[in-house]
Model the fold of this input.
Amino acid sequence: MNIRRRTRSRNGPRRRLCADAEEVVAAAAELGLPCAVKSQVLRGGRGKAGLVRLVKSGDEARAYGSELLGGALGAAHGVRKVLVEEAVSIDRELYLSITVDPQAATALILACADGGVEIEELARTAPEKIIRERVDIDAGLMPFQARNVAHALGLEGKLSASFVTLLSGLWKTFRDKDAELVEVNPLFVTKADEKGERALVAGDGKLVIDDNSAFRQGGAEPSREYFDSDVAYEAAKEGIPYLQFDGDISLMCAGAGLTTVVYDLVNYEGGSVANYLEFGGPNYKKAVRAMALCLVNDPKVILIVTFGTIARADVMADGIAEAIAALKPRCPIVACIRGTGEEQAVETLKAAGLEPLYDTEEAVRKAVALAKAGGRA
Amino acid sequence: MNIRRRTRSRNGPRRRLCADAEEVVAAAAELGLPCAVKSQVLRGGRGKAGLVRLVKSGDEARAYGSELLGGALGAAHGVRKVLVEEAVSIDRELYLSITVDPQAATALILACADGGVEIEELARTAPEKIIRERVDIDAGLMPFQARNVAHALGLEGKLSASFVTLLSGLWKTFRDKDAELVEVNPLFVTKADEKGERALVAGDGKLVIDDNSAFRQGGAEPSREYFDSDVAYEAAKEGIPYLQFDGDISLMCAGAGLTTVVYDLVNYEGGSVANYLEFGGPNYKKAVRAMALCLVNDPKVILIVTFGTIARADVMADGIAEAIAALKPRCPIVACIRGTGEEQAVETLKAAGLEPLYDTEEAVRKAVALAKAGGRA
Amino acid sequence: MSIFIDRSDRVLVQGITGGEGSFWTKHMMDLGTRVVAGVTPGKEGQVVEGAPVYHSIRRAVTENPANAAMLFVPPRFTKDAVFEALDSGIGKIVTIADGIPLQDAIQIRKAALSQGARVVGGNTSGVISPGLAMMGMFPYWIDRVYKPGRVGVMTRSGSLTNEVTAMIVRAGFGVSSLIGVGGDPVPGTRFAEMLPDYQADPDTDAVVVIGELGGTMEEEVAEAMLSGSFTKPVVAFLGGRTAPAGKRMGHAGAIVSGGKGSVKDKIEAFEKAGALVADRPRMVGELLRTAFGRTLNR
Amino acid sequence: MSIFIDRSDRVLVQGITGGEGSFWTKHMMDLGTRVVAGVTPGKEGQVVEGAPVYHSIRRAVTENPANAAMLFVPPRFTKDAVFEALDSGIGKIVTIADGIPLQDAIQIRKAALSQGARVVGGNTSGVISPGLAMMGMFPYWIDRVYKPGRVGVMTRSGSLTNEVTAMIVRAGFGVSSLIGVGGDPVPGTRFAEMLPDYQADPDTDAVVVIGELGGTMEEEVAEAMLSGSFTKPVVAFLGGRTAPAGKRMGHAGAIVSGGKGSVKDKIEAFEKAGALVADRPRMVGELLRTAFGRTLNR
Done:
């Protein structure tokens, strides 16, 4: 599970959360015009999708608010609330994040004087522009390191001091929340005000919390809004890794690496995947639930591939037989179950009416052929 | 400043703070008899001084409470409150503290299965009994280290788990409070109760906070009760290192090492010190205040020795001249002021009626001779 | 010779009294591993598969010197267990734990690096030198999949490794030493850090790298080849070539982040360094034949 | 040759724009020290005593490579300043700050040890090799107190050091190199860690140790003498012999704690190791005469 939360930063502009167009109009009046209207959806690239806009009048606020809250645009992207923010007069946009350097075994600050762009894109197009500062996870962020980043970003004087405060706060969040990523992008530098002062304003933020830390972070139940579909949400609640696609073949495999490779092989063979699903690991007895999550997609074929050690083949086969009996899937099932107890597994699968295979690539080819034939054996 | 606070531990017995004998009787009745009555004074060795006692009846509680709160015993030791604690049935007493290992640059846990004794004494009499566990200050105390100490103390099962919790809490205090020392001594292991359970009970605790951390610990003003005398308290409030003795010669020196050596030399020469006082460091312009703190002791001689670099000799001499003019001390002053600007200093001291010396040992001998002569030059 | 573990290593098992710990301890012993003691706090005095159990490593090693530790310890206690092993000077540590908090993993790797120790895992099946010794969770049906031979294997996966090694064996080869570095974003040991051992091992003629999208471990192997510090033939098999961008598919470590870790980049790096890259598991065996020119000892 | 600092060292001054920083920078330069740049965040572009000022060490060293850093930085910022110097690979650091938090001092020493760097201080006047170079706060009236010569000095004190070195000079000797390790309970560098340098220094014939109650630094010198790793004559002078038990007299580090650090113990250790122990400052000069048998070059 990969929870991304939009942060509210102390450095952020004044803002109001609104649920309908009239609230948007009222907020715009309160915060002053022009102001920014931002859809609250968990996806990147909101600007490009037309989900963020600067509105300049009350009428415009009402019109755009209606489009997003109740209108077609909002409905298409699942917008339920929008944030109205005071517009800031922007001089520059910066990028800033804290993540992990696995090789050096440190935390890593990434920053760039060209903000607003995705860091992935930046790493491809202009890697030399990325400022990197390693931080020892035990000793923590030192003020001099924050100053070094500020200087590299061209921030001086009071802006440098503000940046040190901001980055120190991000560091505390990174450690306290067991984050994988803390990101502020864009980080705005405002134009000088009447007193000649500039300020840093967090334009948007992202916090990715390490799922593995749930036991000490009081890991909340995942919320529906973080998922693309009901079935993905259901799978997450059960701890079953699941991704939904719009193809024909439901994967029901064990082992993260093997499932990924089966996904590749289906694509190589010209097939298409309805869903990625792992029922290995601690979930390997959950075959009934796993198959139910596949059937939601009404696949043409279910493709089962395992080669397990701890996830025993015979136990998996028992589960699959049980699932077939309980769910009576109409589509064909291709099964290739190997590993501990595989002799017994073969007997079980045969008894359940399947023709067990022993070779992954053969199983994939068969599944693709079946899917192309419309899911009839 | 060396603040020692008595801790209230979650592992402590039930307790009530009382200000008069009747409150002691009521608390004893509530907590059950026998119970312990402990004077709240900031000193070690309370047991030996008769300031802690187990009382077995209401009458005994009233009698002992009266002795401490209002009576002669309490008055002699400045007792203003007593703590009444439920008596615990004790099987063993342990020693436990966290301090610093300067050489290894780590924190250091010290523990001993023979508690109740001072660690200094233990280090002399039975160093092999002291359990030591170094803790990296950045990575922090690991549970396995706490378990290692528990095992070495002979604590098993639930007691070991309780000990890990206790020590983890002490570690957090050590770090969060910038402590020089966190100590629980004695740490009681109770006898098994009716269910066969034993518990750890903190008998007494000590927390020494690093003065240098005051800027981030919100360093409170020192409280009068931590000091032996009003003058020591006054000196501490001004940040002037000061110790009061009952001899004849007031030291008014600059430099911690040099002042200590002058103290030694006075003793070698058969003299006695009225007070140790450093007005070097950042206080070197405070000669008037320093001399006033000396005069409180009505010394037979004031002995001034400095050999300063930053603490300039000429500035010191100016201060002393000013102090003499302001305070008009009746006792003789022996001055040996060297270092930066010493030529000018000599002139100033002569103008103030002093005979400046250049040799520390000569100055000490002169001061001792003057003191023996009754403080008349 | 073998990589990481052989019959001379004296292994402690942390978490030996648990179901997983005792089950796999027996397997390890049956496969030749010298397990000298077990550690579970609070269980001192028990005996598991003949191995005495102690409260702590410090007490265990007093009576049973050890140089390796195998952890069957839940993820949340893994950092403590690794640090306990390091504290007693144990230099070879394997942890199978799946779900070690990311920031704990950083601290584990940092501590191991600073002490010159090697921590393998978490989220791995462990390490095995077939026919000699094993630390981890490799079962008895070893012949078809972990037949002894002269091909070294390094992998981020579990089940996929069974799939690929089965193909190595089907192609007529066998495995010298296999190191499962695990599927986490911050593994204790990285592929490239094992290369000097494989380079020096007279019993390894070639190395198969089973990688996947995410991270830069595969690129680091390619760098070692380019720099000339690793000179044996390398066959690479990479999962996630068709994985959708921005989704975490598979292991926690299998995600493109910060613009790094696409399979495309990894293939380019490997090919530039002269490694053979397999598209499918079966191709690994075929490429090994190519690499050896069918001439070397299998 | 000199210990720690000579004219070839390239010194940065952190906190150079402050009153103390600029005042002593001039003294250091006048006494031969090569100050290449200064650092004060926010003050880049200024020039102090001819030295260019930068926002950060990283920016300073880009244009002015340096191997030593002199800190005139308040105690609360000292840890950050030391770590900044270490981060740029600076291996010789002196901090005069009086009042560094104890737990910061532990982190400073730990970081320095792990990087093989040397941090001298805090709570010291610094280091000086009279006639060559100086890092710290030693003034011009040097002739009477810091006359060049062949006696090494290590000290925990400031004013007391002036007192003792004046006696060394009065006895006809001079100072080769003086290291003020400082009066804190956790100094960055301990006496014994400087001994190999004094042992190797052809310009040092004997070492005077100016110690006091508290800690075990003096005992560690005695241990080095007993082990044979330090063989030059040692004269020790110790303050606090008559200090009352349980009171903190003098420096923060000058307290008996955990049963360690009494002057009595230190004298015993020194005498056992063959050092000469002075009761009074004047005796230091006399004992040096004894140690040299009046024969060596003064």
Summary: The interface with chain C takes residues 114 of chain D (CB under 8 Å).
